[in-house]
Each structure stands twice: as C-alpha cells, then as structure tokens.
C-alpha cells in the first residue's frame, strides 16, 4: 500500500532537534528547503559543518532553535521566482507518521514564506503517493512540542561589516559607517574593484591589496551600476564565506536589468506602466503602438538616477530616438507615459519587508524626471496601504531585503516605475527625519547573531588585517 502525502504535512527532523515542522509538499520543486538564518560554517575544510537558527513557527519569531549539521555539498539553487543562490546542503532524517527516511535539504531564508520547509520531489520515494487535493493526511503535530523551549533574546556583540563601494565619502556611505560605529560595530569600506577571489571547492577567499580578507559577519553592497557584473561576483564570493549579504547578488542583478525586473514584477501581477521591448529595427512603429502611442518614455535597460531616460512627446521624436539608441547598439525599453502624474513620483524605502520611510518627489519645471539628482524636490508623505503593499511585494519578488521602490500615481492606481537595490539615503532621511542608516544596521543585527562563543573583533578598520 502506498504511503500517501497531502500537499501539506506535519513532519519532524529529530536529528536537528525539530519535533514539529509544517511543510509544503511540492513535486514541482526538485530540491527540499529548510528555513535558516544566521548560517555559520565551521570545522575543517575536509569535514565542514554548519550552524544555523530556525524559527519553526511563522507566527512566533521568539521561538528560536539552534541547529547544526554536516555539510554534504554547496550548490546553486533556483527558486520558484527565478532567483538563484548558493546554498549549503545537509542530510537530515524526516519522520512522518510511522515512517523515517533520510533526505537532502538546502538551507535558505524562508521568513517571507508561509511554510518553513518545502519537501521537494527528490525527497519523495517511488512508493509514496502525493494527493494534491488533500492536506494533512499523515498524523498532525503542533508547535506545542516546543513547550518549555527557552526563548532567546538576540545576543548583542560587535559585528564585523564590510561596505562595498567605490565612493566611501558619499552621504549614504558616511551615514552607514556612522550608524554602524555608533552601535559598537567594526565597519570597513572596501573598493569593489580592488577585491579579487580565490575560488576552490574547499574554502572561499576574498583578497584585497595582496592579502586575504578576514571573515566578515555581514556585507552591505553599494555597488555602482558600471561594475554590476563584477560587483555581483565579489558579493557571491563573500556569501560563500558565510557572510550575510544585505542584498544578494541575484537580487541586485535583477533590479539593475530593467527588462528582467519588469518581467519578474509582471509575473507576480505587480502593476506597472505598459512596457515594450524588441531587437528588430523593423518593428519601431509597432513598438510605440504597444506602449500606447506617444508620448512615450524610452529607457536604457541599465540606467540610474534618471540617466538614459528620455521623454519622446511625438511619434516622430520617438522613432528618431529609438533609431538613435539602436545605432548605438544600446538595449532599451519603451514605456507608456503617465501624464496624470504631472512629474511626481513616490519613493518608498523598504527594509526587511517593512516600509520605513516615504517621500514624494516633484520634478522641477520643464523636467519630467523627478530624481533628486535631476533637481527634483522631496516632501515627506504618509504612504497608503496600497502603496506599501505594492512596495513590499515588489521588493520580495526581486529577492531584496533593502530597496527604494519608485511608484507613480495613475488613473488605475499606483504603478511601479523602478526598484533600486542601492537606494540613496540623503533625500529620504532629510524628507522623513528618520534615521534610515541605523534601521539598516539594526536589520543586519537581527540577521547576524552569534550561535556559539562570540568571536573576537579588533577595533580597527584596515582591510589588510
């Protein structure tokens, strides 16, 4: 008789000290995944191990269990929303009903997911049957199994933080350094281009000016648009060392590629202006028609601070502009122009799935771009529930923890113009009066906590240490 599973089941992972986990059974996913934060590798390279924290009950973040396991692999895993990340792979015994069997599990942050575990098809043997129309076929467990487990407060300790940027003196970077040091942490500003890597199957290393860098607890990436590809590679290497990356490489790359970002947002049914893209020079006229007739906005596929964004007020101007961009072999998008916005947009700052600041930006007279770098003026506002919901969802879909989400008001409601993975802090702090930099550091503190004896951190900021 087949061992039947529903689309959701309770199970336990006794080897990890987890007596009850509610899991989604998903035969569409090959790999099983377990929620894990503050992932710390340790042990010799020949026999690596990993420690991590898990909050098994999504409704009770104070219930926190420390787990450890042998690492059997590290592999690239692509999630259902198309984001790829390097994950640690462990082996764990699953117990469900009267059956117990070993499976491979990858560790990833699932704090925004309804289920702390996903059971993929590689964990389901041939004699098991999954009934997609049934749930909780096997015996039901409950989180009362953790009764008596000691609740832990976050352990405060000095963190070692790297800030990746080629502009250490700009406002945002100075504020982040000030905020980190005010909270007792050691923060080092590293030039992204001066980082380089030693890539092996045993131990990941990042080098800087001729010396290997020490292990960092966290990395704040503020990578310039011109070095996105190399910066993402450096960030992936830091992640491989076990550092918590405020925004991961996949999220940054997706947000910088406007075409990819719009496709991801569209798949998640997030409202945005009608966008058209083509490669053939023979479809210029139809491309403009797809965007909804002139005036239209033509955007370079990779642009920041309003550069490479041009308004074509007539069809003739749009055709000439498109032909010019094609002559430069530039990739670009054509978007509908939201006339009723009157040169205004709204920037919402999201940290850890929470909107922590909002401002309305108004373009100067004669300019349709409201970017502050283009002379726009900022005014603090109270964002609507709809705006906040859209901003949080857009940030999550791109796999970001921190983002500036730009919305424009249309006749059909708020539309997402852009999601910025390295948002500037000066405008939003000045307009809102909020200490955004400190909120960023506090978010890092919540995700990087000691699991064993606190490591010694020397109070120095020389990257060559």
UniProtKB/TrEMBL annotation:
<dbReference type="Pfam" id="PF18030">
    <property type="entry name" value="Rimk_N"/>
</dbReference>
<dbReference type="Pfam" id="PF08443">
    <property type="entry name" value="RimK"/>
</dbReference>
<dbReference type="Pfam" id="PF05618">
    <property type="entry name" value="Zn_protease"/>
</dbReference>
<dbReference type="InterPro" id="IPR041107">
    <property type="entry name" value="Rimk_N"/>
</dbReference>
<keyword id="KW-0464">Manganese</keyword>
<keyword id="KW-0547">Nucleotide-binding</keyword>
<keyword id="KW-0687">Ribonucleoprotein</keyword>
<dbReference type="InterPro" id="IPR013815">
    <property type="entry name" value="ATP_grasp_subdomain_1"/>
</dbReference>
<feature type="domain" description="ATP-grasp">
    <location>
        <begin position="262"/>
        <end position="445"/>
    </location>
</feature>
<dbReference type="GO" id="GO:0009432">
    <property type="term" value="P:SOS response"/>
</dbReference>
<dbReference type="GO" id="GO:0005524">
    <property type="term" value="F:ATP binding"/>
</dbReference>
<keyword id="KW-0479">Metal-binding</keyword>
<dbReference type="InterPro" id="IPR008503">
    <property type="entry name" value="Asp_endopeptidase"/>
</dbReference>
<keyword id="KW-0436">Ligase</keyword>
<comment type="similarity">
    <text>In the C-terminal section; belongs to the RimK family.</text>
</comment>
<keyword id="KW-0460">Magnesium</keyword>
<dbReference type="InterPro" id="IPR004666">
    <property type="entry name" value="Rp_bS6_RimK/Lys_biosynth_LsyX"/>
</dbReference>
<dbReference type="InterPro" id="IPR021109">
    <property type="entry name" value="Peptidase_aspartic_dom_sf"/>
</dbReference>
<dbReference type="GO" id="GO:0046872">
    <property type="term" value="F:metal ion binding"/>
</dbReference>
<dbReference type="InterPro" id="IPR011761">
    <property type="entry name" value="ATP-grasp"/>
</dbReference>
<dbReference type="GO" id="GO:0006412">
    <property type="term" value="P:translation"/>
</dbReference>
<keyword id="KW-0648">Protein biosynthesis</keyword>
<keyword id="KW-0689">Ribosomal protein</keyword>
<dbReference type="InterPro" id="IPR013651">
    <property type="entry name" value="ATP-grasp_RimK-type"/>
</dbReference>
<keyword id="KW-0067">ATP-binding</keyword>
<dbReference type="GO" id="GO:0005737">
    <property type="term" value="C:cytoplasm"/>
</dbReference>
<dbReference type="GO" id="GO:0005840">
    <property type="term" value="C:ribosome"/>
</dbReference>
<protein>
    <recommendedName>
        <fullName>Probable alpha-L-glutamate ligase</fullName>
    </recommendedName>
</protein>
<dbReference type="GO" id="GO:0018169">
    <property type="term" value="F:ribosomal S6-glutamic acid ligase activity"/>
</dbReference>
